[in-house]
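Quiz preparation item.
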């Protein structure tokens, strides 16, 4: 958990399995069990095709598990709900809307008054550092700025869980690092339970309280790695032996420890 406090489970997943039916029957998940605490930042890594995105879509309510249960705040998940916000890997901001209108979209759909929408949007614009860009369109922003608008738009409706599927996967390394720092700062300001799916082990360690390693398909929890590093996770910390040790353990669970040894300094 982010701070010392009594444990409160926000998300409980028990014995979840998922089978894709079709020409080839594919077991994406099998026997997946985990719990996520309130305000915890959880990252999930695993081999390609291990069911990470499938799992996230089940939690979002986009897919119904073949077996098992998913509880959010103690209530079964059967469909999408306002308490679960989803940030897609693909760009999902509305290109025909300004930054302001994008941020107000979810609130408008919920029937919020214009004054309330304006206050929430203004707060989020300040938090993501886009003052002066309220009337800009996504096409006028950098890729990183556009992605942060998408994250802020999901946060505008105040979900209790933020689900993120490779949100920075399409960005270059420098921009991705900047967006990781921005996301961390935003999370510190507006604590939420976050479940992040990523292929980037360093990103997982930079952001998460805990990293879950999925097994190859069918996906299940292979390992849990606590990240007990101080925040914010600066460049100096990312280059530290402590950071490298966590990275080495995760890569070992992924079967890639030899690659880490070959690429590590000394």
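Solution:
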């Amino acid at each position: 958990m982010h701070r010392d406090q009594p444990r409160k489970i926000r998300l409980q997943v028990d014995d979840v399995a998922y089978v894709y039916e079709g020409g080839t029957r594919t077991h994406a998940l099998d026997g997946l069990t985990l719990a996520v605490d309130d305000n915890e930042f959880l990252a999930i890594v695993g081999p390609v095709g291990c069911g990470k995105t499938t799992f996230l879509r089940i939690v979002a309510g986009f897919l119904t598990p073949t077996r098992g249960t998913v509880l959010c705040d103690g209530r079964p998940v059967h469909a999408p709900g306002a308490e679960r916000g989803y940030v897609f890997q693909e760009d999902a901001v509305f290109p025909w809307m300004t930054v302001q209108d994008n941020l107000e979209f979810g609130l408008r759909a919920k029937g919020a008054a214009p004054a309330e929408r304006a206050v929430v949007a203004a707060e989020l614009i300040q938090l993501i550092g886009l003052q002066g860009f309220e009337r800009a369109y996504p096409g006028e922003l950098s890729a990183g700025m556009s992605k942060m608008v998408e994250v802020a738009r999901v946060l505008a409706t105040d979900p209790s869980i933020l689900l993120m599927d490779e949100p920075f996967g399409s960005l270059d390394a420098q921009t991705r690092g900047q967006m990781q720092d921005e996301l961390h700062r935003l999370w510190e300001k507006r604590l939420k339970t976050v479940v992040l799916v990523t292929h980037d082990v360093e990103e997982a360690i930079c952001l998460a309280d805990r990293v879950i390693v999925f097994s190859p398909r069918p996906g299940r929890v292979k390992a849990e790695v606590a990240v007990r590093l101080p925040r914010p996770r600066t460049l100096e910390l990312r280059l530290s032996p402590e950071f490298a040790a966590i990275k080495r353990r995760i890569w070992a669970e992924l079967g890639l420890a030899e690659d880490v040894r070959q690429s590590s300094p000394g």
